[in-house]
Amino acid sequence: MSDDAKLPRYKKSHIGEHRLRPESLMMSYGYDPALSEGALKSPIFQTSTFVFESAEAGKAYFEIALGLREQGPTEHLGLIYSRLNNPDLEILEDRLTLWDEAEAAAVFESGMAAISTALLAFLRPGDVLLHSEPLYGGTDYLVNHILPEFGIRSVPFPAGRPISDVEEGIREGVGDGPLKVVLIETPSNPTNALVDIEGTATLARSIGRDGEPPIVMVDNTFLGPLWQHPMSHGADVVLYSATKFIGGHSDVIAGACLGGSEVLATVRTMRTFIGSGADPWTGWLLMRSLETLKMRMTAQVKNARYVADYLQDHTKVRRVNYLGLMAEDHPMFGVYRAQCLAPGSLISFDVEGGEEGAFRFLNSLQLVKLAVSLGSTESLAEHPAAMTHADVPPAEREREGIGPSMVRISVGVEHYEDILADLEQALAAT
Ligand SMILES: *Cc1c(COP(=O)(O)O)cnc(C)c1O
Fold it and tell me: Side-chain half-sphere of 142: how many Cα atoms within 13 Å?
């Protein structure tokens, strides 16, 4: 049921009772042309500070921004200073909430800025952080090397296993806690191992202290915001490296954090004082990217399916990790069906010939570029063991199946036959 009636036109998400999809709102939602000389597109508000209409208005904005009093029902937080808010960021944040159906969003200078700010907002010395493993390299370093110096203990549990297999380890590891934050990354990188969001959230809440349930965060970079919506599986916070699919053109570093209004207010306060918010130009670029997000991600999934099928049948390829190829009798198949709306566009596989074979393959690619990062319009390939996962201890890499012959591909929007032609000649060269 729409309660749009009272909203200004640019904040309406319905036509009568008909609800508009996020992709239809990405070009206009949250932006009022009347406030910008009728410009169809939002200008870049390249300004550090904003002029108050009166001293009284300035005072009121500060009272709200600093939480000195409750915001009145008809009151809005006016623009103050671009470390706190800026139109390009506010419009972008409004649009980002639509995909995950979140109440609020905050954008950051990088994915790491989003993750570190969100963790610092909820963790204090003596607290316990439970996290899935493997994690993105930067997150892993933060959790295992930096947070412990602030007295925060991290407890890992392995991705790729049903919750019943990991429950005992989690209970033992957390002990008396207090468990304050759960950080899940699913599917994991580069193996596409899944974590059961709902199962983990339910378990974590049952072992959190009474009246103080842990905040459950999900790094949704690999499948979101289209193909996985963690909040509908019990997550409180969704995190993104917007550098990847959301930005989608390998030309901007950014991050985002989404969730309920109350949780996001805490994250925003931390962002204000750490100063990790994005700048207006980043906001503008991401708004531009969001207009084509669905088209890009849809084309990428389609291409990835062709690539995965091709690789699976190739005699020089040994094991293809792709969600779309998960067997129905796999212990995580039920989680896949319940949690993921599509298999995404990240594939990892083993090439014959160990590291030498993998390197020869990577060095022979012509269309697909040899680079880390993912989720962009162009296809990218890299060698996890020597690159993105180089500082993961060898024993852990072994456990996760990240060997010397593994290659990871992020499939782009090129014509799939061109991608396959490149893979074919590069595999022939190994
Ligand atoms: C890239 C990435 C990050 C870090 O994001 P940056 O934008 O590079 O800071 C975090 N998590 C995942 C899953 C990533 O792929």
Answer: 19
Structural domain includes residue 36: no
CA of 141 to the centre of ligand 1 (A): 12
Alpha carbon distance 129, 410 (integer Å): 30
Instruction: Dump pLDDT digits (tens) for 243-271.
Output: 999 999 999 999 999 999 999 999 999 99
- The C-alpha angle 320, 321, 325, rounded to 5 degrees, equals 85
CATH number at 261 reads 3.40.640.10
Report which residue type is found at 378: E
Residue 37 is encoded by which pair of tokens? 């000389």
- State whether the beta carbon of 268 lies less than 6 angstroms from ligand 1: no
Residue 110 CB less than 6 A away from ligand 1? yes
pTM to 2 decimal places = 0.96
Cβ–ligand 1 contact at 244 (below 6 Å):
yes
CA–centroid distance, residue 255 to ligand 1 (Å)? 8
The 10s digit of each residue's pLDDT in 319-343 is: 999 999 999 999 999 999 999 999 9
User: pLDDT, tens digit, for every residue of 96-143?
Assistant: 999 999 999 999 999 999 999 999 999 999 999 999 999 998 999 999
Q: Are 138 and 112 in contact (CB under 8 A)?
A: yes
Structural domains of the chain, count: 2
Q: Do 262 and 146 have their domain in common? A: yes
What pLDDT is recorded for position 1?
42
Sole residue written with tokens 């429950």? 167
- Is 310 among the residues known to form the active site? no
Which residue in the block uniquely carries the two structure tokens 């610092």?
Answer: 120
The CB density around residue 378, as the number of other CB atoms within 10 Å, is 15
